[in-house]
Write a structure and sequence with these properties.
Elements (H helix, E strand, L loop, with lengths): L9 H7 L18 E7 L7 H9 L6 E7 L6 H10 L4 E2 L3 E2 L4 H11 L2
Parallel strand pairs: 1-2, 2-3, 2-4
The chain binds flavin mononucleotide (FMN).
Flavin mononucleotide binds next to α1.
Length: 114
């Protein structure tokens, strides 16, 4: 993971620029979904900027978005609170940081009842 400790790395530059919106390579249509699981790694305490590209470019109004993340130790709260304040027409759940076994992931998803 040496790219994470390099201040000139692409991911660090993107994270230091709050207006950065890296392009998403593939077209993703969310039209036919009411519930979307949004998964990402924590980079410098927050979601990678490309997640904001996704949120900016899709009309998720009225949809439920369920964030989940992996991280070394940081929580998911900072990223979810940013989502909630900046995309107010979307129903974000509090989400979950996953640092767990496959069974714990399955139990979490099943327990949500979506
Ligand atoms: C650029 C970069 C920044 C990161 N920043 C954080 C951080 O602030 N807090 C943290 O707990 N983990 C951080 N990580 C670790 C990633 O969240 C972790 O590598 C990712 O969730 C994938 O998990 P894995 O390495 O176990 O596959 C960072 C990783 C990278 C590449």
């Amino acid at each position: 993971m040496n790219y994470s400790s390099n201040n000139n790395s692409r991911c660090t530059k993107e994270q230091n620029d709050s207006s950065s919106r890296p392009a998403i390579a593939n077209n993703i249509s969310t039209d036919s979904y009411d519930v979307i699981y949004l998964g990402y790694p924590i980079w410098w305490g927050d979601s990678p900027r490309i997640m904001l590209t996704f949120l900016d470019n899709h009309n998720l109004s009225g949809k439920t978005v369920i964030p989940f993340c992996t991280s070394g130790s940081s929580g998911i709260e900072t990223s979810v609170s940013y989502f909630k304040s900046n995309y107010k027409d979307v129903n974000f759940l509090d989400g979950k940081r996953l640092n767990v076994s496959k069974n714990e992931v399955i139990n979490w998803v099943n327990g949500l009842n979506y």
